[in-house]
Amino acid sequence: MALHYAIPLDAGKFERANVKGFHAHDDALSDTTLASFAVDALIEEAQLTPKPALVDGRGSGAHRDLDLPLMLRSARALEPTFAALARVSRGRLPSATLRAELAQIGRAGEQDMMRATSGSNAHRGAIWIVGLLVAGAAIVFDDDMSDALPSLSHAARVCATGARIACFPDRFAAVAVTDSHGERVRQRYNVGGARQEAQDGFPHVIDIGLPALLAARAKGIAENEARVDTLLAIMASLDDTCLLHRAGLAGLHAGQRGARAVLAAGGSSTAAGRAALDALETELLSLNASPGGAADLLAATLFIDKLAHHAASGS
Residue 211: its pLDDT value, please? Predict the structure, then answer.
């Protein structure tokens, strides 16, 4: 499967400005640090307010079984999982064996999440998406990838390495996984879902999310609104299987159309954009729909952004 590496920015400028100092043997990027970045990204995504029909500081959105304290417990419970994913990936190359080991750790992490949330699925998709990026970061920072991928920014290398892992099959996946809500949605609507997103190189992170976040900051938009607009940019493009599962094509189209309307009105930092955002949320709530897939990819974007800031600071 083709991997999408290009980003709609000057790659050299992006690397110099935002990824300066990404070196293969940066000891400061320990397993613990990578896990902390991943957990912080999940927490910051959950706390971001307002998000359309998602759990945030105002309430539960379209989710009857989730709230913000539960989301925070779930994120914190996953820190050992992310640390284990990083530790297992050190000094390795993407392979079927590594893929199987990471999957085993991820499934154990799901059980930790379920115990922390009393059975609610707060972050299953994020374990896959962010977990692969943690593994990719551990490999990229542990081995010099510049000879193999000379044209890529270091941020894109992390995504590309995670994608290479994702392209190997999970040989020990249970039958229940292949009959999940996400898998049924992918088959019914012929969409790629989180699996394809990872295998394609995380295009909604590296091609859409991160450029949208950097562009909003460059315009002087406050960080909170910049992140909301980044979520909306992801929503506008993504075939979100969470929206499809909860509300079918009507939910997906409402989410995409509404996100585009907010951005066209000037984004969440403008009066017109906030009105459009309120209208988007009202429509999604009426459909009992929530863009959970886009939320996971926002968390992944924030994780990659943390790697860039860490490197730029010379830590």
Answer: 96
